[in-house]
Amino acid sequence: MHTIKLFIIVLLFTTGFIHASWANDKVLFILSADKHGYYLPEVVAPFEHIKKHGFDIEFASPGGSEGFPAALNRLSEQEKAIYQGMLSTTNIKTPKPLVDVRADDYVAFYVPGGSGPMFDLAQHAELKRLSLSFLAQNKIISAVCHGPAAFVDIKNEQGKYLVEGLKMTAKSNAEEGSWPRENYPFLLEDKFKAQGAYFSFAAPDEPYVVFDQGILTGQNPKSALPVAKRLIELLLDK
């Protein structure tokens, strides 16, 4: 009987310790600060899913700008309530400048899409530093839709493109309309293929997620929650 009681006490203590340890781990959300904005539905749903699994979430952006949240009208009533809570309980209005972010402080980062990342997160020096630093520490870097623009043109110490030889996805050419084709500096599918990635995708507007060697990517807005779910699976499996 004493042995059984001791086993139960140890089990409860161990379980409590595991949950407590995750409660102190943080996931970084990196937002675009560009005038074209970041896509709010790709922020709120992943935020809620990651948060409910016990992870703290902090926000960062180039220069610490709050940026331009887009598509508030695309949120459900429940998501709008979550977003209102985020405004008062997180630093989404006052993100940390990327220059002040250290990989040591987080277990993963996530980049939502919107048109903004195509203009300010692509080729961003601090984001390049963070991407390489996170991966060097065996931490996950993730992005969805146009968020993977954060991973273009990054080269490692050997001068090799970060995505070369890796499976990747992002907004496909088939999903881009006339405005992006005329105004974006590049299309993600074209860029990743040119840099040696094995770029794959599903039918337009279908959720699709790819993970390869620490880099987790999702194709489109419908892939945002699946990316968050996969991220949690990967983190809990570590």
From TrEMBL:
<feature type="domain" description="DJ-1/PfpI">
    <location>
        <begin position="26"/>
        <end position="233"/>
    </location>
</feature>
<comment type="similarity">
    <text>Belongs to the peptidase C56 family. HSP31-like subfamily.</text>
</comment>
<keyword id="KW-0456">Lyase</keyword>
<dbReference type="GO" id="GO:0019243">
    <property type="term" value="P:methylglyoxal catabolic process to D-lactate via S-lactoyl-glutathione"/>
</dbReference>
<dbReference type="InterPro" id="IPR029062">
    <property type="entry name" value="Class_I_gatase-like"/>
</dbReference>
<dbReference type="InterPro" id="IPR002818">
    <property type="entry name" value="DJ-1/PfpI"/>
</dbReference>
<dbReference type="Pfam" id="PF01965">
    <property type="entry name" value="DJ-1_PfpI"/>
</dbReference>
<protein>
    <submittedName>
        <fullName>Glutamine amidotransferase</fullName>
    </submittedName>
</protein>
<dbReference type="GO" id="GO:0005737">
    <property type="term" value="C:cytoplasm"/>
</dbReference>
<dbReference type="GO" id="GO:0019172">
    <property type="term" value="F:glyoxalase III activity"/>
</dbReference>
<keyword id="KW-0346">Stress response</keyword>
<dbReference type="InterPro" id="IPR050325">
    <property type="entry name" value="Prot/Nucl_acid_deglycase"/>
</dbReference>
<keyword id="KW-0315">Glutamine amidotransferase</keyword>
